[in-house]
Design goal:
The chain is an alpha+beta fold. The protein has three helices and eight strands. It has a single domain, classed as YaeB-like fold (2-Layer Sandwich), CATH 3.30.2310.
């Protein structure tokens, strides 16, 4: 299966609540690890409106299944959903999460006392 066919099939199944199945792992995420849990509704929206960023690859455990990862950016937040597509039947979501955006830190000043600014923009090190 190619990416375009998989994307079309995912978008066809995603709006159907009963066709999107979640594993226990997909239902639980640890925000302390930098990953926020997604509701089933958010997962379905990511599947319907996101883009395949990995796969599809034949799934080793589910005959006729295709492993994929979809990504969707919403309000400066990146959502990722990984699962297995069984064409014309259902999507099994392995995991779904939003990545917590990290705040940008100001560059740290050098604390090396041997560095000296000679006024021309270059720093000489002794």
């Amino acid at each position: 299966m190619n990416k375009a066919t998989a994307q079309a099939e995912i978008r066809k199944l995603a709006p159907w609540y009963e066709k999107v199945r979640l594993t226990e792992h997909a239902k639980k995420r640890d925000p302390a690890s930098g990953k926020l849990p997604l509701t089933k509704k958010e997962i379905m929206a990511a599947l319907e409106h996101g883009t395949i960023v990995e796969g599809p690859y034949p799934d080793l455990k589910m005959p006729g299944g295709w492993t994929f990862t979809v990504e969707r950016n919403v309000d400066e937040q990146r959502c990722r959903v990984a699962g297995v597509l069984v064409p014309q039947e259902f999507i099994l979501v392995i995991t779904g999460y939003a990545i917590i955006p990290q705040t940008r830190r100001a560059p740290q000043a050098a604390n090396d006392e041997d560095d000296e600014d000679n006024g021309d923009g270059d720093v000489s090190v002794h």
